[in-house]
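Protein Entry — a single chain follows
Fields — amino acid sequence, structure tokens
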Amino acid sequence: MTGNKYDSHIIVAACFMIQAVGVGTFVTYGVFFNSLLEEFQWSRASLSGASSLAFILSGIFAIIIGKLNDIHGPRKLMSIASLLLGTGVILMSRLTELWQLFVFYGIIFGVGLGAIDVIALTTTARWFTRSRGFMTGIVKVGTGAGQFLIPFMASVLIASHGWRQAYVIIGISVTLILFGVAQLLRRDPESCNSMKGTIRNSQIQPSSLHDNSLSAEGAIHTIQFWILCGISVLTVFCLLTILVHIVPHASDLGLSARKAAGVLSTIGAVSMIGRFSAGVAIDRLGSKQIMVICFFILISGLLWLQIADNLWMLYLFAAVYGLAHGGFFTAISPIVAEVFGIGSHGAIFGIVVFSGTAGGAVGPLVAGRLFDMTGSYGTTFQLITILSTISLALIVFLKPINAPIKEVQPH
């Protein structure tokens, strides 16, 4: 805030940091995976289960946080979430028993994680209209930056200080950064007006904030809503399976720990290009068209992964997959805003996020179980290729964004 003016660029920067730190910290679980496996000799299914629990709880609490965010705004909610995220990570350094893994990471960290997407993306959607896709793309570039930098930093910290001390350093950093960023958040330009400020660089008219918006209750009775939820379930099942298991898979192929972590960092780096490009294209082509393109790229990458058996092939997969990954997560929030308006964006987007987390929670767990049964990820990669193809088929039935919303008559 400068005097009585609140610059919308502050909102974009704050949401960028929330995505970078929150999502980046979550995906580092794959980097710690082998350290935990070696020290405790727990099964891959058990280790995957903690990540799945964190992800499903983040989805459940995304619904709650989304509704609260619509009413109370993001600052206090993000402050609480920062404490939960940091505490969960720090407690991981004290891990000795399997049940602690599920409590520290699955529950404490998972509840905090529920705020990351809903607060950052709903706040962005509320602040921008004409360039919503572009600004969402910039915010989602933060996710890619976090996925690139934080896993790499984690691998360096593990190598130099051990995995326990690495968790302490990351946990303290997460708490301090996110709590500070939370203090910069405002719900929307209207909330700044209510504080007798004026809006600078905001591209939204306060009087139009709730125009043509559908309530969460009304959205649930539309065909579009269930198509989006179905796409989200299947797609995030595939995406989270890759994020959790690509580092162990690379290690199984003989890559060193740092090179294996580099595959994950490459995904994050390239996804920044995908997120930014998707954000620019969404304002011109619409979110549905961008998602269709992303699914074609994703399926191509997954087919390549099934024959990739050395370093350069895995890094090429990471580059192709990163484009699709970034584009999908950039498009989902603008689609919700375009179809249903932004009056209840937090609540509706929270439910769509929950749908994705349900799939994302099951995916890594299924992959871990299949590996324990077969000794490889071959069956898993075939499964997620099929599910991605089904998602592509589903999006064909998603009505044009500007079509009248047809409600499903409740039974």
